[in-house]
Structures are given as structure tokens and as C-alpha cells.
Design a protein that fits this description.
heterodimer, A: mainly beta, four-stranded antiparallel sheet, 11 strands, globular, B: mainly beta, three-stranded antiparallel sheet
């Protein structure tokens, strides 16, 4: 079964750092892009960025460039999303998802269950 | 990047047909995809490449495209279809963009 398993909920204080994970299984992890999507409380889906674990090619949405770092360790089939200094406005659910590509085809076919990040003093 | 515009909400009675639209200038050139998200759950793909249905998705879900607008149609709506629905597309480089989402209420 193809699945993405995300790390557990986090509660942090403003200014702290954080790294959450997304482990793929049931498919060739290095052959598909993994994207990250933010969903703030009561709001819609926002595209953050994406990484190709095969060569760590990474692309960021302009809204998130410089705010987060996306990385991957292909030896353990895991992608990461990290913050160096959290803000209260980072409070959200974060999803990882596998991107299915084809000729002019780009969509997210497998999603993790999400990681809740709460930032509060 | 570009924007996809959805109505914030759509309401329909059980057994009726729900239509959720998504508009964007690039949609004549790029495929659209639709996701269903129920409270507390991750999104689930219900339509890909404008009108294709993944395995396991009920036949009452269908998609269509006309110019700059794509439409998700749910025929014979059931109570379990109450959810948020998001359209998604991408630019030529593969950068994903989501619509703002539509809350479907089954009266």
C-alpha cells in the first residue's frame, strides 16, 4: 500500500525551531516529487513547495520562500519541513502529498494525514 | 502563478445535483483536479485531468471543462458528500495552485 506517514502533533513557543517529517512507503520514494501544503485553522489549502528526493531539487512558493526549508533523506524515504524560528502565525495543519506527474499533468494523488503545529507562548 | 476562483459555498438537498465551479485564466491550457476534504481529514482526490475519476470514487462524481471554467458535478447528492471541495491546477513548470475551496452543504 502506498502511504505517507507524517510525524505527530507539535506544540512550540514563538522563536523555537521545528522539523516535521513525512515518510513514504509502498513505492519508489526517489521517483516522485513530495509537496507540502499548509492549512491554517478554518482556511483553505496553500501550496508551500516541493522536493524531488531523487536529487533534492527543491522549489518554493514565493509566499514561503525564506520562511521554511524543505529537505529529504532518500536513504530513509523521508521528507522534511522545517522552521528556524516559529511564529504564532505558523499555527496550522501541514500536509505532505505525493505529486503525480505526466505530460502537462500535475496533481497530488497520495496525502499524509497531516501534522498539527501549534505555536503559542 | 495564477489564481483559481471558487464560490465559497453551495447548498443542495439530498438527491439533487450539486455543481461547483472553478475559474482561472490558465484552465484552457492546464488540467484541473478536484479534492474532497471532510472535517478532520486529509484531502482526497475525486477528479483528475478535468474529468477522470480515480478508482474507488463513486460514479456520481464527474468533472467537465469549458473555456476558463471547470465544474465538479455531484449527481444524486448524499449526506456523506457534505465536505469542502478544492480545485487545483498547475502552471507549465508544475507549480501547484489551489482554489479557495467551496463548502458543500447538504440540506
Amino acid at each position: 500500500e502506498v502511504q505517507l506517514v507524517q510525524s505527530g502533533a507539535e506544540v512550540k513557543k514563538p522563536g523555537e525551531s521545528l522539523k516535521i517529517s513525512c515518510k513514504g512507503s509502498g513505492y519508489s520514494f526517489t521517483s516522485y516529487w513530495i509537496g507540502w501544503v499548509r492549512q491554517m485553522p478554518g482556511k483553505g489549502l496553500e501550496w508551500m513547495g516541493i522536493i524531488y528526493p531523487g536529487d533534492s531539487d527543491t522549489r518554493y512558493s514565493p509566499s514561503f520562500q525564506g520562511q521554511v526549508t524543505i529537505s529529504a533523506d532518500k536513504s530513509i524515504s523521508t521528507a522534511y519541513l522545517q522552521w528556524s524560528s516559529l511564529k504564532a502565525s505558523d499555527t496550522a495543519m501541514y500536509y505532505c502529498a505525493r505529486r503525480r506527474d505526466g505530460y502537462n499533468v500535475y496533481y497530488m494523488d497520495v496525502w499524509g494525514k497531516g501534522t498539527t503545529v501549534t505555536v503559542s507562548s | 502563478s495564477y489564481e483559481l476562483t471558487q464560490p465559497p459555498s453551495v447548498s443542495v438537498s439530498p438527491g439533487q445535483t450539486a455543481r461547483i465551479t472553478c475559474s482561472g485564466d490558465a484552465l484552457p491550457k492546464q488540467y484541473a483536479y478536484w479534492y474532497q476534504q471532510k472535517p478532520g481529514q486529509a484531502p482526497v482526490l475525486v477528479i483528475y485531468k478535468d474529468s477522470e475519476r480515480p478508482s474507488g470514487i463513486p460514479e456520481r462524481f464527474s468533472g467537465s471543462s469549458s473555456g476558463t471554467t471547470v465544474t465538479l458535478t455531484i449527481s444524486g447528492v448524499q449526506a456523506e458528500d457534505e465536505a469542502d471541495y478544492y480545485c487545483q491546477s498547475a502552471d507549465s513548470s508544475g507549480t501547484v495552485v489551489f482554489g479557495g475551496g467551496t463548502k458543500l452543504t447538504v440540506l
